[in-house]
Amino acid sequence: MNPVKIKVEDQKFLYILWDDNSETRIDLPTLRDACPCAECQTGKNPQNENLPFKPLTLGKKAEIADIKVVGNYALNIFWKDGHHTGIYEYGYLKSLGM
Ligand SMILES: [Zn+2]
How far is CA 51 from the centre of its chain? Predict the structure, then answer.
């Protein structure tokens, strides 16, 4: 399973067309909430471990600046606020879709 087409729709949804013709659409706040990187998953603030890390976009919009394909199994999503350590495997992306 590989993406044939990846696009950000109005900074609201990530749309992926897969090579089996199925489609996935994920709203961006959901995608950001589901960031699988260690920082987001452990909830640690990289500046100060005693403070809770808030990776999410409280009061801000989750917007995508760039997307890179990693190997042939995942997407690396670069958020406009500078966060870019999340590697989203294709199966995981599919599971997040609506
Ligand atoms: Zn993250």
Answer: 23
